[in-house]
Structure prediction request, 254 residues.
Amino acid sequence: MNVIMMDANVIATAQRQDPVQPFFAARDLHAYYGESYIVQGVSLDIRQGEILALLGRNGAGKTSTLRTIARTDLPALMTGEIWLQGAPLHRMKAHAAARAGVQLVPEDRRIIPGLTVEENLTLARVAPGHGWDLERIYAHFPRLAERRRQEGVTLSGGEQQMLSIARALAREVKLLLLDEPYEGLAPVVVREIERILHDIKKLGITTIIVEQNAVAALQLADRAVILDTGEVAFTGLAKEVLDNAELRREYLAI
Ligand SMILES: Nc1ncnc2c1ncn2[C@@H]1O[C@H](COP(=O)(O)OP(=O)(O)O)[C@@H](O)[C@H]1O
Ligand SMILES: [Mg+2]
Prediction:
């Protein structure tokens, strides 16, 4: 009896939504690779359906911040809190964070060798917490539909990027983390991925996009955060960064 009452309490606490609590909040994150202190007090707030561009020079700590949010083993989060719709991600490991709806699309795309496009997508749906089904994925990614029987790792770079994004959407996604989705792609392919990301934006999927191509990211994003040596150097509207030559020169070299 006691146990049941306790469970009900835990559930009530987990479901309580504080109206001033943003959809996603990272509070004063400090994370390390061994002795190396890399993420140095990063805080981020994101409203539901918003796209945040996370920018900064090479080595500023963008990938490390995404990995911290996705709760990968490294970098290790020492202090700070990460909340997604009331769920304490800071207390979770990567698999639990994924189940809670955080989907990281890493820079290296991680397509599974030996599996076709469709098998890569189907495998993503084995874990609990389903997102889009194959029909919906193929409607948004016609190139993947055409290549569904092809081994995933034999796709072009752009197609692998599409597969990696599609795989994230096949899971339950509350927060999509994109690490340099345009990296190494020809301009014509970048435009194709951009079109897909604009679709995702219209669907209201809350997203953090990290990109060296800052202008492309800022055109997609609502707001921007600029990192400099593991700290937040700017936070504001994406448009403010596009309009501020000094800021762009100092932190983005554009
Ligand atoms: N596995 C690692 N071990 C130690 N240091 C790392 C590791 N990965 C990245 N770093 C360091 O952390 C800093 C931030 O890297 P990163 O987050 O990849 O930056 P960005 O994505 O902004 O280019 C860099 O100084 C980098 O050398
Ligand atoms: Mg990076």
